[in-house]
Specification:
two-stranded antiparallel sheet, about 325 residues, single chain, disordered N terminus, about 70% helix, mainly alpha
Length: about 325
C-alpha cells in the first residue's frame, strides 16, 4: 500500500512538472546539442526494472478501478452532468477566450522579442510592431477578421523558421477558430457594427474538433519529440528541477511516465474520447506546471485558453464520443 501511495503521489507531482513543460524552454542550446540525440533504449529503460514495472501496473489497475467506480456512481454522474450543463452555458464566451489568449501572446511576443513562441527569436522591429498591433486589435475585438489573417500569416512564417512550433498547434487552432466564430462580441467591431467578412458559418460546427485536434497534436508532438525521442535531455531537466528529491524514482522513470501520459492525453483529445476529462486533466497539469517552473505566462496562455474552450464545447464532430444520429 505504501508503494502504491508513493506512486500515486509521484504521478500527481510528475504531471504538473514535466508533462506539459516545454523542455526546450528549460534547457540551453548547448544542452540541446549535447543531450538531444534520439535513444529509445534509454526511454524504455524503466521497463527493465521490476520495481517500476510493478508501479506502472499498479497505477493502471488503480486508474481502471477508479474509473469503473466513477462510471457506476449515480452521484458522480449527476455532478458531471451538472458540470457539462454549466460548461455549455459558457459557449458565448468562447470568442472572448480565443481573442484574449491570442492577443496576450502576440503582445508578449512583441515586447519580449520573440515571434509566436519563445523559441523563435525576432529581431525585426516591423514584425514586433505587427504583432503588437494585431494583439491589441484582437483583445479589443477591432478588425477581427483582418487580425486573424495577420495572425495566421505570422504563425505560418514562424513555423517555417522552426518546426518546433508543431508543438504549438494550439495557437494555430485558436487562430482558425476566429474564422469559424462570430468573434465581434464583445468588441469594438460589434459596437461600431463592422462586419466580419471572413466569418465562415459553414465550419462553425467543426469548431470543437479544430480546437481539440490542434491542442492534441501539439501535446502528442511534444511528448514524442521532447520525451520519447530525446529522453536524455528530458531527464536532465528532471534532475535539475529537483523532481527526484520530491519522489525517489529515477529521472528515466520521470521522463518515461511524462512522455506516455502526455502522449495519451494528446491522443484522447485528437480522437475525441473523454474529451472533457482530458481537458480538465491537462488544465490541472498545466496550472501546476506553470506555478512550479515559474515560466513566462506567454508560453502557456494559449493552452489555458484552448483547454478552457475545449472543456466548454466538448467533443463536437468527428470524435469517438460524438453523438451519432440514427437515420
Amino acid at each position: 500500500m505504501k508503494t502504491i501511495l508513493t506512486l500515486l503521489l509521484g504521478i500527481i507531482t510528475l504531471l504538473p512538472k514535466n508533462a506539459l513543460a516545454h523542455v526546450r524552454y528549460l534547457s540551453s542550446e548547448l544542452e540541446q546539442r549535447n543531450y538531444g540525440q534520439s535513444n529509445f533504449d534509454i526511454f524504455f529503460a524503466p521497463l527493465q526494472d521490476p520495481k517500476y514495472v510493478v508501479m506502472i501496473l499498479a497505477t493502471i489497475f488503480i486508474i481502471i478501478l477508479v474509473y469503473w467506480y466513477c462510471d457506476h456512481n449515480r452521484y458522480i454522474h449527476k455532478w458531471t452532468d451538472h458540470m457539462t450543463k454549466i460548461g455549455e452555458s459558457y459557449k458565448q464566451f468562447i470568442p472572448w477566450i480565443t481573442r484574449l489568449s491570442l492577443g496576450i501572446l502576440l503582445i508578449s511576443g512583441a515586447t519580449n522579442a520573440f515571434l509566436i513562441s519563445p523559441v523563435v527569436e525576432n529581431g525585426s522591429t516591423f514584425i514586433s510592431l505587427v504583432q503588437l498591433v494585431t494583439g491589441f486589435f484582437l483583445m479589443a475585438g477591432f478588425l477581427t477578421g483582418i487580425s486573424a489573417v495577420v495572425a495566421l500569416f505570422l504563425f505560418t512564417y514562424a513555423l517555417f523558421q522552426d518546426p518546433y512550433l508543431i508543438g504549438s498547434f494550439d495557437i494555430l487552432a485558436l487562430i482558425l477558430s476566429l474564422f469559424a466564430l462570430d468573434s465581434r462580441r464583445p468588441g469594438v467591431d460589434d459596437i461600431l457594427d463592422i462586419p466580419d467578412w471572413l466569418h465562415e458559418k459553414k465550419i462553425r460546427e467543426y469548431l470543437p474538433t479544430i480546437l481539440r485536434v490542434g491542442v492534441g497534436i501539439g501535446m502528442s508532438y511534444l511528448a514524442f519529440v521532447e520525451k520519447i525521442l530525446t529522453p536524455e535531455l528530458a531527464s536532465l531537466v528532471v534532475e535539475r528541477s529537483g523532481l527526484i528529491e520530491v519522489i525517489p524514482v529515477s529521472s528515466g522513470m520521470w521522463t518515461f511516465s511524462a512522455g506516455i501520459i502526455e502522449l495519451l492525453v494528446g491522443l484522447m483529445l485528437i480522437v475525441g474520447w473523454k474529451t472533457r476529462i482530458a481537458s480538465v486533466a491537462a488544465l490541472v497539469i498545466l496550472s501546476l506546471s506553470f506555478f512550479y517552473f515559474g515560466e513566462d505566462v506567454s508560453s502557456h496562455v494559449t493552452l489555458f485558453g484552448i483547454l478552457s474552450a475545449v472543456f466548454i464545447l466538448g467533443v463536437g464532430k468527428l470524435g469517438i464520443d460524438a453523438p451519432h444520429t440514427v437515420k
